[in-house]
Amino acid sequence: MIRFKKTFLVLLFSLSGLLFFQSAQAWAQNDEEAIRELLEQRDDEIKELMGSKGTEYTQEQREKLKNIINGIIDYRAMARYALEDTYNELSEDERDEFVDLFSTIIRDQSLNKLDIYRAKVKYEEISVDGSEAEVRTIAQLENVRTPVGYKMKYTDDSEWVVTDMIIDDVSTADSYQRQFQKIIRQKGYDSLLETLRKRAAR
C-alpha cells in the first residue's frame, strides 16, 4: 500500500510538471504570435499610409507616420538605459522632460529615410523568455537585405513594447548610451540636456 502511494505521488508530480511545461510552452507560443501580429500590423499600417513611391506627405500624414512607427517604443526604458546612474539622480519632472525631448528626437529621425519602411520583412525568429522577448527579422528593399532586431518587454499594461532596435547589428539603445555618456563625462548632464533641447527645437 505504501509503495502504491509513493508510485501514485511520483506519477502525480510528473504529470503536474508536464502540464506546467506544456502550459508554459503554450503561453510562449501565444506571446510569439501576439508579437508577430503587433509588428505585422504596424508594418501594414505604415505601408498603407505611405502609398506609392514618390508620394508627398502632408504634415498631418507625417504626424500619423511618426505615431505608427514609434507607437510601440518604450522611450522611458531607452532613456533610463542611455542615462545610466544619472537617471536616478533626476527628479520626476526632470526625467519627464528628458524623455519628452528624447522621444521627440527619435520620432523626427524616424522620417529621415521613409523608403526603408517599404522593405519586405521576413521574420527569422521570435523568442520569448518570461516578460522579455527578442525578434530577428530580415528587411529586404530591392536587392539590399538588412538584419533588423527588436528587444521587447511585456508591460504592466498588458502589452508588448520595444526597448531597443538593432539595425545591421548596431543597437540603437547602445548608440545613444555611448553618445550621452560621453557628453555627461566631458561636459555634464546640463550640457546634454541643452543639446537635446536644441535638436528637438529644429
Give a description of the structure.
There is one protein chain. The protein has one domain: Nuclear Transport Factor 2, Chain: A, CATH 3.10.450.710. The longest helix has 49 residues, at 2-50. The protein has helices spanning 2-50, 59-70, 75-83, 85-89, 92-109, 172-187, 189-201; strands spanning 120-129, 132-141, 144-154, 160-167, 170-171. Helices cover 60% and strands 20% of the residues. 15% of the residues are buried. The termini are far apart. Mean pLDDT is 85; it is low at 2-28. Helix 1 (2-50) runs antiparallel to helix 2 and helix 5 (92-109) packs across helix 7. A hairpin with a 2-residue loop joins strand 4 (160-167) and strand 5 (170-171). The protein is an alpha+beta fold and 202 residues long. The protein is globular. It contains seven helices and five strands. It has a five-stranded antiparallel beta sheet. Keywords: Signal. Residues 1-28 form the signal peptide. InterPro entries: MlaC/ttg2D, Tgt2/MlaC_sf. This is Phospholipid transport system substrate-binding protein. Pfam families: MlaC.
Which helices and strands occur, and which strands form pairs?
Blueprint: H1 2-50, H2 59-70, H3 75-83, H4 85-89, H5 92-109, E1 120-129, E2 132-141, E3 144-154, E4 160-167, E5 170-171, H6 172-187, H7 189-201
Antiparallel strand pairs: 1-2, 2-3, 3-4, 4-5
Helix pairs in contact: 1-2, 3-6, 5-7, 6-7
State the CATH topology: Nuclear Transport Factor 2, Chain: A
> What would CATH call the class?
Alpha Beta
Shape field = globular
Spatial order of the strands in the main sheet? 1-2-3-4-5
* Low-confidence sequence ranges: 2-28
How many strands? Answer: 5
**Rg (CA only):** 22 Å
End-to-end separation: 82 Å
- Following the backbone from N to C, one meets helices and strands in this order, namely HHHHHEEEEEHH
Question: What count of structural domains?
Answer: 1
InterPro entries: MlaC/ttg2D, Tgt2/MlaC_sf
Signal peptide: 1-28
Protein name: Phospholipid transport system substrate-binding protein
Keywords: Signal
